[in-house]
Amino acid sequence: MDIAGINLGAGAAALFGGGAQYLGDTNIDQLRNGGLTGSAVYQANDVAIACVNSGASGCGGSYDVTNTWNFANGTIKTVISNGSTTLDYSGDGSVDTNIAF
Known about the structure:
By secondary structure, the chain is mainly beta. It has one domain (6-100). Helix content is 13%, strand content 43%.
């Protein structure tokens, strides 16, 4: 998996003083082995779940996701929560099941 366009912000721009170069996409192993310490948390709420095979009324839902990147031990943890969706798994235009997590 590659991470395209990582934005290090104005602080990194000031450090490099205009001498930074884009060297291509960064992959997960490069980030994990880059000597970084600490952790970073990325969170998104109400991520949409769309029904692409059906126009059934009420089909779809949403969930929350939190990714914690622990650079000290080289792990990435993903937690998905507050999710609920209704699905038309047969594609016949009617909702077949409800899922909550």
